[in-house]
């Protein structure tokens, strides 16, 4: 069972304004298995390619590792090619697909996993 302490939200700021956000916690769908889940990772367009996404991902993975999750996974909306390329470049392995019913809209998602999150 997930604990509240499994959840984390990180916000990166630049000159007092939020420019990137990441969230992680216990898996929300069966496809993640025992992996912790990166629930959200967003970097604003004006600060992309500066290492913020990689830094947030690394810190989220560390948080999940410290809570005993053996690896991490992330769901990426099908067609989000920049995110897919990002996770592939970081060694993410495609582990399947699922439909996220979402609270607002349904989306098809590709799951990327890292069995050893220390590589992030």
TrEMBL record:
<protein>
    <submittedName>
        <fullName>Ribosomal protein S18 acetylase RimI-like enzyme</fullName>
    </submittedName>
</protein>
<dbReference type="Pfam" id="PF00583">
    <property type="entry name" value="Acetyltransf_1"/>
</dbReference>
<dbReference type="InterPro" id="IPR000182">
    <property type="entry name" value="GNAT_dom"/>
</dbReference>
<feature type="domain" description="N-acetyltransferase">
    <location>
        <begin position="1"/>
        <end position="111"/>
    </location>
</feature>
<dbReference type="InterPro" id="IPR050832">
    <property type="entry name" value="Bact_Acetyltransf"/>
</dbReference>
<keyword id="KW-0808">Transferase</keyword>
<keyword id="KW-0012">Acyltransferase</keyword>
<dbReference type="InterPro" id="IPR016181">
    <property type="entry name" value="Acyl_CoA_acyltransferase"/>
</dbReference>
């Amino acid at each position: 069972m997930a604990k509240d302490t499994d959840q984390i939200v990180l916000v990166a700021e630049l000159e007092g304004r939020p420019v990137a956000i990441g969230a992680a916690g216990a898996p929300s769908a069966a496809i993640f298995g025992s992996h912790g889940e990166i629930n959200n990772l967003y970097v604003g367009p004006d600060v992309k390619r500066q290492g913020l996404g990689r830094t947030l991902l690394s810190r989220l993975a560390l948080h999940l590792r410290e809570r005993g999750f053996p690896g991490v996974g992330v769901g990426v909306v099908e067609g989000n090619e920049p995110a897919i390329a990002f996770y592939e470049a970081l060694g993410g392995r495609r582990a399947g697909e699922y439909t996220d019913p979402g609270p607002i809209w349904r989306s098809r998602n590709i799951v990327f996993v890292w069995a050893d999150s220390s590589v992030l």
